[in-house]
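Why does this matter for the project? Reviewers at the last site visit asked to see concrete outputs rather than summary tables. In response, this paragraph embeds two records directly. Each consists of the residue sequence and, immediately after it, the corresponding structure tokens. Nothing has been edited or filtered.
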Amino acid sequence: MKTWKFGDNVDTDQIIPAEYLTTGDAKQLAAHAFAKVRPEFSEEVKEGDVIVAADNFGCGSSREHAPRALIGAGICCVVAKSFARIFFRNSINIGLPLVEADVFGRIEEVDEIEVNFDKGVIINLTKKEEYKFEPLPEFMQKLLDSGGLIPYIKKQK
């Protein structure tokens, strides 16, 4: 998985600018993800890539469009030192895995990484290093494994 690095306080307006909020379609949103801060992102991101960020990723407006755009872009996980609380819940509810880990200074954008959610470990294949993190609670992992809250609820019927 390729990594994309972003710093502190990446807000939802940076993830998906407000003028593109005319749809809820993940693929259409993905075409404009990070349009104003990393215009190359939507063209270069690949299925399975990972975002690595510093503090307070997803701050700002409480819109589900932001994690939906990342899912549409193929991002399989966001790793950050911390997340804005509403972004964290929105992401889990729509099926975007998040990992809280203070690894921003240890992972470079050129590094290939793997994330093992069950074991709570990020493997940096480039540097041959491992970084531990606290796995999500079992219920939250079940939501993610189901594809989010709505698919989880549908499976319960």
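We now turn to the second protein, recorded in exactly the same manner.
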Amino acid sequence: MTPPAVIVGGDGVARCAWSDGSDDYRDYHDQEWGRAVHGDTALFERITLEAFQSGLSWLTILRKREGFRAAFAQFDPHVVAAYGDTDVTRLMADAGIVRNRRKIDATVTNARALLRMQAESGVGALDAVFWSSRPAADRPRPRTYADIPSTTPESTALSKVLKAQGFVFVGPTTMYAAMQACGVVDDHAEGCHRA
């Protein structure tokens, strides 16, 4: 039996089932997930967090989010792009983030790729590419977990565009999660109070 995509919490509010079990998840679901995010820096943050989440619980990332912001200079791509070996060593010792060398290196690489995009196409280049991946508005709302894809043709296309720009750790699954988080797609399930 496929689990339902929506459950009613102890407060009597129907929410996407994944948000159950933690105040952090519930608050993220109610206040942020699926709401439109614009701006290159904000999207750089979300792409970075989704990359760090790969293979881990999203709850781990949520609980370390302020640590990530401090470690990566509020995701200012100009600062992060200038990080060198000393900074990477410092970050590998920072318990406030997930200490994964490949993901830290990817964040620096992606900051540099973002600056190249902006130099070629102007500020807002990442925002334009990200939002150009928005699917048709007539997608039905998910009713069960089985209705929620892990990738889509749009997330695959976005991944290819970003990789061509020099980004790493931006596979189709990671990009679909970022698209959901940033409101490019609305996967609040049918019956959820945010739908």
